[in-house]
């Protein structure tokens, strides 16, 4: 593929509510981010993705926008955002924002107008159906019907996510044009691009017919009828042509439901987006992203197979967005390493394994400290709307309360949303007030201040990974090299090659508790990274438990 500037970025994702609180109200804010720009710069990141900061009743923590042109006052002012963009730029850090255009908040002026007056043009900005019966049996992503009754009228409105997140009607040209204008206005503001939320939901099956139920509630997942539906290509192409294409920006789409055969359309040379997130490896422990109680047993080999299948499919047409965490996922340490979540060697190897895949690495706040899941003992301790729904749905589907609690503890989005542990002081140094969500019990053991001072910490390991990719002699190969998966003797070792015409780097990541011997495709000529003493001879390497071993081979 032709080189693009965003291939060389290291993206750091910020969940603003939980990153750093500058004024003691318990809520993270823009000035908090500004105060940590040096921390981010020292880590080596080059771009920040900031989750939604727009005006919102915060029913889904900002993914329910009530005004695209105003910021949530708890996060700060437009002036402060401008300042953040400017100060970040001075440090060589770009900013991308979250673009939520499948739905708005029910408190958005457009929706309020639609409710007030069914004859107003805003009524057709959303999806309404009249009648006294629920129009069909589709289940929303956050549980219950996709339809919500309009009070005082025989009418229902459609929501793919929460009931305070009505879907916009993309069939309406004026809706689309209004959104494009807004997108362009933000790009003109000076941001580098967008992470694009839930974009494969914008087209619905317009027959709105019921389908066969897939749960005891008599409903069927709306992903079957409102995700990546035929016809979506027209909207996505238009969105790109009217907005992104006019700017030299980067776009990373949350696009679940896209098949590998369709990747060319999405991220090919002339694709709708720069990159999309592939969730296949992230969902390896559950039947679907909206059914946490349907657990699936998995092995490191399954993780390897999913990642490699994805890498090879994407390599054919474009560029990956590599991640192991985000604000919707549990902590990668707890999820992928299980009883080894606190084993620093294992945490480092997990980090290196995904970091050197072909693509742009995304790091979620706290991942660089090796943060872990936070176990809660009752449903009342959860904030995330999706966790609360999954708890009751599990029980409805026959789980005991203990099982339901166990499943949501494993998967809750709150795991990633706990306040960032800056220091080993009260409230983990996140806020001088009471944090909006309880800090984890681990902050005395896992916090930024201690790790910055400890050269063996996970933080310094991530710093080193970034430095290797961005500044070392191996840069060209580690960024642009092709990826070729390697077969391994041990099923708990993941191995691949990165390769340019000039150089080949063999990369071995052991998730085994035993010493493992692996074959090298050729002899070692130079070590790139080894987390334990490198032991190799001719075409064989001996890997200590949880060791990362990367070397240039002849
Ligand atoms: C995906 C976002 O990542 C998630 O946090 C949000 O709840 C849904 N989209 C709805 O916007
Ligand atoms: Ca604050």
Could you please describe the fold and organization of this structure?
By secondary structure, this protein is of the alpha/beta class. Among the domains are: 5-100 and 279-379 and 416-464, TIM Barrel, CATH 3.20.20; 481-553, Immunoglobulin-like. The chain has 17 helices and 25 strands. Strands 13-12-10-5-2-1-17-16 form an 8-stranded parallel β-sheet. β23 and β24 form a beta hairpin. α11 packs parallel to α16 (458-471) and α12 (385-396) runs antiparallel to α13 (401-411). The model has no long low-confidence stretch (mean pLDDT 98). 1-deoxynojirimycin binds at residues 60, 63, 100, 161, 197-198, 254, 327-328.
CATH superfamily of the domain at 5-100 and 279-379 and 416-464: Glycosidases
Anisotropy-based shape: globular
- Relative helix content: 25-40%
* Low-pLDDT regions: none
Largest sheet: 8 strands, parallel
CATH topology of the domain at 5-100 and 279-379 and 416-464: TIM Barrel
Integer average pLDDT = 98
Number of helices: 17
Strand count:
25
Bound molecules: 1-deoxynojirimycin, calcium ion
The separation of the N and C termini measures: 26 Å
Gyration radius, rounded: 23 Å
């Amino acid at each position: 593929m032709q080189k693009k500037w965003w291939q060389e970025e290291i993206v750091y994702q910020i969940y603003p509510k939980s990153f750093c609180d500058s004024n003691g109200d318990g809520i993270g804010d823009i000035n908090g981010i500004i105060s940590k720009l040096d921390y981010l710069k020292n880590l080596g990141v080059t771009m920040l993705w900031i989750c939604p900061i727009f005006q919102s009743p915060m029913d889904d923590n900002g993914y329910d926008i009530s005004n695209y042109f105003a910021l949530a006052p708890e996060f700060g002012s437009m002036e402060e955002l401008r300042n953040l963009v400017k100060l970040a730029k001075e440090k060589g850090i770009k900013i991308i924002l979250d673009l939520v255009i499948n739905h708005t908040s029910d408190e958005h002026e457009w929706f309020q107008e639609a409710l007030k007056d069914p004859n107003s043009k805003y009524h057709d900005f959303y999806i309404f159906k009249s009648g006294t019966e629920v129009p069909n049996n589709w289940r929303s992503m956050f549980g219950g019907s996709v339809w919500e009754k309009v009070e005082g009228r025989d009418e229902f409105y459609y929501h793919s996510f929460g009931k305070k997140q009505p879907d916009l009607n993309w069939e309406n040209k004026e809706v689309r044009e209004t959104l494009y204008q807004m997108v362009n206005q933000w790009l003109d503001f000076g941001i580098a691009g967008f992470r694009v939320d839930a974009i494969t939901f914008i087209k619905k099956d317009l027959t709105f017919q019921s389908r066969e139920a897939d749960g005891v509630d008599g409903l069927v997942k709306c992903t079957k009828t409102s995700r990546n539906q035929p016809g979506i290509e027209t909207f996505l192409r238009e969105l790109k042509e009217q907005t992104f294409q006019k700017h030299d920006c980067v776009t990373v789409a949350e696009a679940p439901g896209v098949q590998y055969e369709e990747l060319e359309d999405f991220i090919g040379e002339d694709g709708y987006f720069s990159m999309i997130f592939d969730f296949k490896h992230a969902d390896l422990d559950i039947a679907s992203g909206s059914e946490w109680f349907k657990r699936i047993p998995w092995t490191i080999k399954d993780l390897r197979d999913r990642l490699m299948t994805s890498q090879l499919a994407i390599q054919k047409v474009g560029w990956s967005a590599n991640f192991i965490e985000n604000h919707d996922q549990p902590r990668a340490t707890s999820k992928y390493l299980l009883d080894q979540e606190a084993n620093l060697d294992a945490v480092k190897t997990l980090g290196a394994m995904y970091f050197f895949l072909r693509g742009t690495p995304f790091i979620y706040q706290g991942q660089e400290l090796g943060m872990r899941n936070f176990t809660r003992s009752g449903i009342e301790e959860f904030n995330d709307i999706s966790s609360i729904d999954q708890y009751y749905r599990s029980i409805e589907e026959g789980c005991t309360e203990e099982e339901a609690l166990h499943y949501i503890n494993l998967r809750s989005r709150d795991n990633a949303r706990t306040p960032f542990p800056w220091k080993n002081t009260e409230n983990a140094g996140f806020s001088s007030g009471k944090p909006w969500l309880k800090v984890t019990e681990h902050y005395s053991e896992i916090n930024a201040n201690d790790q910055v001072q400890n050269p063996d910490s996970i933080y310094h390991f991530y710093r080193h990974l970034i430095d290797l990719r961005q500044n070392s002699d191996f840069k060209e190969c580690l960024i642009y090299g092709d990826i070729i998966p390697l077969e391994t003797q041990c099923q708990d070792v993941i191995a691949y090659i990165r390769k340019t015409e000039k150089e080949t780097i063999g990369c071995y990541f052991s998730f085994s508790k035993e010493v493992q011997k692996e074959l090298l495709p050729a002899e070692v000529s130079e070590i790139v990274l080894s987390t334990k003493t490198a032991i190799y001879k001719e075409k064989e390497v001996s890997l200590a438990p949880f060791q990362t071993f990367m070397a240039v081979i002849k």
